Amino acid sequence: MIAVLLAAAQPVAAMRVAFDRHGETSAAAHGVADLATGRVVTVDDPVRVASISKLVTAIGVLRLVEQHRLDLDADVSALLGWPLRNPAFPDRPITLRLLLSHRSSLTDGVDYVLPLDADLRTVLADPKAWDAQHPPGSFFRYTNMNLPVVAAVVERATGERFDRLMARLVLNPLQLDACFNWAGCAPATRARAIVLYRDGQPVKDTPAEIAACPVTPARDTSCDLARWRPGVNGAMFAPQGGLRISARALARIGRMLLDGGRLDGVRVLSRRSVRLLETPLWRFDGTNGETEGGFYCGYGLAVTFLATPGCRDDPFGDGAARLGHGGDAYGLRSGLWIDPAAGTGIAYAATDVPAADAGFTPVEAALARGP
């Protein structure tokens, strides 16, 4: 059925898993993971799910909050070891709550995909990284750079490498065969990687690229992960979009959220933390943020809220309130959405998806609504 739904758009690969809190209710895949080999895609193959990574990062942050190792409302400068300040508003502290909800006043005016040897403090000293018109806490602007700062903070708080920390806090407890930026995935998992395409051309995660370096190489093209130091380069493992995970594994995250922080009888998050994820921190009122064409009209701790009257944020087409996160990068579109009232959810991803003017694409609508 998924092949019929997607016939007009023709993504190279598409995966969809529907679930409730008890387990999967349906699973389907269509297309190929790698055009060069013709390998047929499955719902167990890992793919770079782009910004759904932010939600997974937030789950890790909340686990550290539960352990009293982080405070959502503390000035992150103390942990970073240097003052994180918008130069236009030097007296306004920036917190994890503001960073995760894209209200920090950071912008993507500088590149957030940083080489292995980058120094985040130096990058953020550039005034182009900041919104000079709106102080922290006053305006929503979806900004990938927020997440490397979050990663730097958690590395400084724990002394652990971000990808390994997320494995310990989130991926392993949920029994997910997944990793950030391939560094933590086993060779057998990397061999099942889904290649990302744009207009039929490979743009990310080809076998040759994965073999060359699991992160963005240093400026001299070297790839020595021993150069990592806690908090120096929070972008190294791409907390904003570098999670490699299958649709089936994404569904397990959704099931955990639907069941109040538990999965298969094991508690991963407290109910209080799940309630925090279920709580919007920003709603568009016409002037208090940028919606990117109506795609973002409600947002929380790295959580997007659907659907908002007057916005273009309802790929399901039924007006029901949902929460989760979407992903859009390198021709891929992905989504993890749960409907708490109905107790159901969807995880999906598709490669080589034609861009939309604004809002969700027809491919996403087909995957969201299903058969």
Give the tags:
7-stranded antiparallel beta sheet, 3-stranded antiparallel beta sheet, globular
Task: Explain what the structure shows.
The protein is an alpha+beta fold. It is built from 12 helices and 16 strands. The protein has helices at residues 2-5, 52-66, 77-80, 96-100, 120-124, 146-158, 162-171, 187-190, 207-212, 247-258, 271-277, 362-369; strands at residues 13-20, 23-34, 39-40, 47-48, 179-180, 196-198, 201-204, 243-245, 262-263, 266-267, 282-283, 298-299, 304-306, 322-329, 332-339, 344-351. The strands form 5 sheets. The chain has a 7-stranded antiparallel sheet, with helices on both faces. Strands 4-8-5 form a 3-stranded antiparallel sheet. A two-stranded antiparallel sheet has the order 6-7. The longest helix has 15 residues, at 52-66. The model has no long low-confidence stretch (mean pLDDT 95).
